[in-house]
Sequence to fold (290 residues):
Amino acid sequence: MVSSTLLLSSILAATLATATALPPHRRGTGEIQCPIILSGLIPTSLTPSDFDSYATSPFNPDYIRGSEPFSESLKFPNVTSSRFDNDTTKAIEVTINDQSIFQSQNGFRRAGLQIQGDENENGPGTEGVRTLHWSVKQDGQRGLNLTHEYLNVWHETADYSGNQFNFQTGTIIGSSGGDENTFKFINRQNQEVWSTPVDDSAWQNFAITLDFDNNTIQIYYSKDDEPLEAVTEALSNDNSGAGQYQIGLLKKPTGTDDVVNSGYQESGIDEGQIYGGLFLEDSADGCISL
Fold:
């Protein structure tokens, strides 16, 4: 009897351990309604090493990162799916550490994703009307130090002289009185046009429509699996200059006027931002996946 009890207990323990190790099953119900121009959706079959090759990665394997290959810095978090991920796609986490120095930008700690096919000049991402979708979720084990300024998602001009928009968080350098624990949208004129608190537990879903013909931007937002809703009108914005979409983490230093090359970054950092449902769609004729 004792041996049978022990055997049953062992089987139950193993079953519970296996169940704990399985990823959550809830999947997003969002349907992509418009033609995809650039896809950063992550197939469930991808492994870390796939992100080191042009043949298998959805992203440029060489940009944007430090000396570490993406197979070491990108993670597959054990989280439920974002709104536009389903049984065939999964979330990915961009992480930064002390070695996350891109080229000679010693002031930044930076890692990011550039979707393959997104060209710096004359690319498909900067013509007509385009909507960029992404979802973010926070990693309690790799929290951000919000006394710093972070760029999470932005579109940089082809000559690197500016950004058509920024999606960022933390303490914005040169600003006063703002809440560090918010996600903020900044326009080409460096003005905040919309913000929302960072949610430590929910998926937060964002989209921004860039009308390159009429020079406007419009922002959409929801939580978890709720449909996106417009949170701004179409706002005037200078969308000229071509360039590329940047998705990831760029952590700026403190205590300097030369943020690219110098300043204070604490040592021993291990920070991350979880992303899901990343794609750029064609929003001609007002098409928006909600």
Summary: Confidence is low (pLDDT under 50) at residues 1-23.
